[in-house]
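For reference, the entry.
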Amino acid sequence: MTAGAGPTMTRVRGRNTGAVAADQDAAGLGRWRAGLFVLPALVLIGVFLVLPALWTIYLGATDFQLTGTAAAQPRIVGMDNLLSVFSGGGFAGSLLLTLEYVVGSAVVGQAGLGLALAWVMRDRRGVLRRVVDAVVLLAWILPNSVVAFLWIALLDRDSGTLNALLGTPGFGWLLRYPMLSIIVFNIWRGTAFSQMLYSAALANVPRSQLETARLTGATPWRQLWDVVLPQIRGHVLTNLLLVSLWTFNDFTPFLLTAGGPDHRSETLPVFVYVTALTGGQLGLGAAISFVMLLVNLVIAFGYLRLLGRRKDGAA
């Protein structure tokens, strides 16, 4: 009787152990309870991200407009809107301006200046460090509308602060150099994020390695290039991915130039706004937004591939 009970108890014990292992996660919550914890986040993602994306794709396949018959009874037009996007000259011009804006403002400006500030200020203490941190963070936390108003006051043709300082009354910076103006504006506004991320990354670089490089005669530039950058490459790629996507979808330049003069600063977010709301062509605007989503995916995929190669190389 005892011998017969042994296998039975072993099977029961094994079955119970397997059931517990399959039903519990690392925290011991179980699948259902763990699912309840993430359910609110999934609902928010579905309501505010997935559904609007699906609705945008649907609108992009219709002739939906703000007013008129197409507003009440939109028709499915299939790929006509996408063909109009690529056949028209406005999209190509806005795409080139947007890429210029991303490269100049995000890649070269925010990422480059953020790394330079973090490297120069890494060992600084006292008043200078606090002033630099305060100025950079102030630009980051101020609302976009407030920052845009400050820059309009700075660059105004008639009563701008910059013209008063340079003694060039009547010089229209936003009219003559619209792209340069919004690029510099966005660099000033967004460098804080890059600086904070790089400062945290530099704090994890062993000081002994930098000291060894210094004792061997390496200049600060060689220390940064040979010692620091290889160790923070993952942080650099992550920062480039985030600031590139944020800048690509940034609508704030509209507050400064409204896409002008003569469409010379009309980036893709502004182009979508002008097409969909000012022009009333919501279907065409949705199609442009869908193309922007594809471009965002290409940018993200490129950075993630580079980040994956970095991890493979480290392994």
About this structure: The longest helix spans residues 282-314. The chain has one domain: 90-314. Residues 7-15, 17-24 have pLDDT under 50 and may be disordered.
